[in-house]
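pasting input
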Amino acid sequence: MNTTVRLDLGDIQGNILQGYGFPYCRYLVVRVDEPVSAARWLRTIAGRTADGANGLRIETAERWASGTKPTACLNVGITAAGLRVLGVPDASVNGLAPEFVRGVQDSSSKIGDTGASAPSHWRYGLADARHVHMVVSINARTTDARDDMTTRVAAAPGLAIIGSLDAAAFAGGLVHFGYVDGIAQPRFVGYHGPDDRDDDQPMTSVGAVLLGFESSFEGLTWALPTPAVLGRNGAYDAFRLLDQDVVGFSDYLDDQAAMLVAQAPDVFTDTNHARDVMLAKMLGRWPDGSPVATWPDGPAPGGHGGRDGDLNRFDFADDEPGARCPIGSHIRRSNPRSAHIVQRNAAHVRRLVRRGMPYGPQDVAPDGVPRGLAGNFLCSSLGAQFEAIMYDWVNLGLLDPRITGLNDPLIGNNDPRHSRFDFAYRDRSFSLAGFPRFVTTAGSAYLFLPSLSALRWIGGHA
Amino acid sequence: MLKLEKPPAAPAHGVHTSGTAGLYDFAHRHPQARGAIAAVGGIVTPTSYVRASYHAVHAFVVRNAADEVRYVRFTWEPVAGVEPRTPVQEATDPRPDSTLHDELSDRLRAFPQQMTLRMQIAEAGDVTSDATTGWPDARRRVTMGVLTLTHVLPDQAGAEQLGYNPTTLVDGVELSDDPLLEARRVAYEWSHADRNRRLVEEAGTMSASTSRLDRVLTRLEDRLTNALVPYWAWRQRRAIEEDARTGAPGHQAGGLDWTVPERVWSAAPSDNLQRAMNLVMPLKDTSVLGRLRLTVAIGSCNDELMAGLNNVGNVHFARFDLIDDSLCMVSVYDGDFKNYIRDFIVAIGSIFDVIMTFVVDPPPTPVAEHADEFIAWVDAHDLFQFPSSLMVLPGDLEELPRDALLLMNQHRHIMIGLYHCYPGFSTAQIRQALGVGW
């Protein structure tokens, strides 16, 4: 086992190992019209100097020296179709992960992109996979900085922006449905110190997200393409634009809250109380982030001890019946931690890096304006991590016989005719049923976030 | 040269044959030791100290605040699952004695490792005084907590001062009526004291201990004339006893709180349980000797295969068949095909490395470094599941849909149908309903 990890931070795109924490993000869906100019542009923005591309430069994981924090950060994800258009030989493209090579639309039925979530309904230029070559992301501290960088990207020769989406953080790290998001992230040996964030979960290999390192699966190494430079230090990104039905969700909670209060007036003081409990049990965290595994009766009194404190100091192994954190809740089924699960080998190894930001207004209004989450689920194997979680756990619930056949109450591919979610509260059992699909895919792409040396190599191929 | 010998008599059901003639002789004369000896034959070397299960064979008593007591047995289970070394690895890749120790240090330098403490709860009628007698599988198991191992202490540092005495207990845990515990207590106290010379001066205690040891041993001799100290026996024994008692292993209901939810059919495309894999792998060497070599290679890995399948967890049945000139792996599993194959590689990739040496046009090995290629290879060698939409017989055979003909032409091996006696249930749901743990 290789225990020394040396990371070349200046070669790794800056949004992989850590988020920027900026409040604005714009995604540009890009079609390559002139491969030669586009390749040259990529080579330039991945170069050491960036004067030739309107001052644009890919942001890396290199830490900012004090006073040099940029106002906007540029990153690029490329699809398999994009690599081919840019002139990367098929033999090299096909050496990347098979799910990436075939593209996200090939996995539709597997990851639940069916019905209203089917690719034919997608927006932002993502519906026709043949034209989705790159997704450029601009993380910015101000809207001015974002717009300025957009103008400079739009001026790049040979590229056509065929779709765009703006996301903007809500105060307090909230997302639609009213939760704090993005709390648990894997910590990497060789990048995070053991005391970086308080978390009871084992640290993992940086190979859980970057190619070219020992993977998070014991003994498994994901193959690198030829040449290896194309793959090494790169990461896959399941880029997902997920519409959230805030009105439907709120109506459902109101409806069920009245039912719960009628059913158990001794347990639920009023409909607000019942609503909060449902929110908490469906996710596995109270809206403020405090885990129900630690705080089963109500959110942690007087705040939760900071984002990285008590928020991750819990496990499900000591709650086998799911009395505190329901087995079917979102966070338990997508990361069962050390709980006893059917697929013993899969404990801890499927974890993803998640970068998400909400889009659409924060209120709950039936105005037809899309509201949702622009999510990036980063990993070194789309099949072994992202798709494995979506297929076996989020939907299907194969990890525990008590939820097998039932989908995630929040993001699952649910149908009101047979959806169900069981939870316990104050030693009583409750069951929710008849809920629809609250989250619909509005667009998606499987991207590869190449290293800077890979971008320079790609840029030399058109 | 093949040498023909009269085969030995078949062993009793469930008993592995291994060990020496002397061991068998002992087993013949001491029926109570047979389970232990059979179990010894099943012992395999783990790949790591933290990829093995540890069973405390003695029963203990736990008492709650309301003064209710239960007899229990403790087990440490690796969160990552059990992984034994294969006979092939044992034969071709011998390791020095310090391997497991070094491996643990290396492993912990990279990542912490976790073990789960689980407690099996006895029910009325279970034998609690004899560590050689197992309890039925159906007995409820409860998770007590998770131990995270972060580093290995320098060798022996501090260890000499510790007494690993199974009778030193925390509040709420008490000794059972197993007399061996008492014997171990005395023996361990004695050896601990012997190591720590500071206790020697308490000569009175020493002699008292010694005489108590004698007394206990005498009592033990009365009761357990045939006792080996059977650390490994109970696993094997409980299966045999259970067979004898019920005719089939573990079919009584357990004391589980949860029942299998009433089956709800989901429209989600991911609702995919009990899927079939029919892997057909043409053999390189189809001679009698080639087929025999393959059979022996797979047969000798049987225990590892079973352990691996157990770790994968979502496999209903799996079997290896030699049919004509192909090795066939036929299985029924739950969930995603790729996850199934990938978990299998994690569990027993090295066995596949061996099997791949026997088949035509193998994928690159070691499979652990070429997981995606192996999955694609398995996919390509799997039977094609013929779409039922095309299984409509027209009035005239020549009117068969073109798609059907093309598919038939493209695929030599076709799966036509699969019957489900209990459709839509996962492995774990079935095990849970039977009360045999999952």
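fyi Chain A is about 20% helix and 20% strand.
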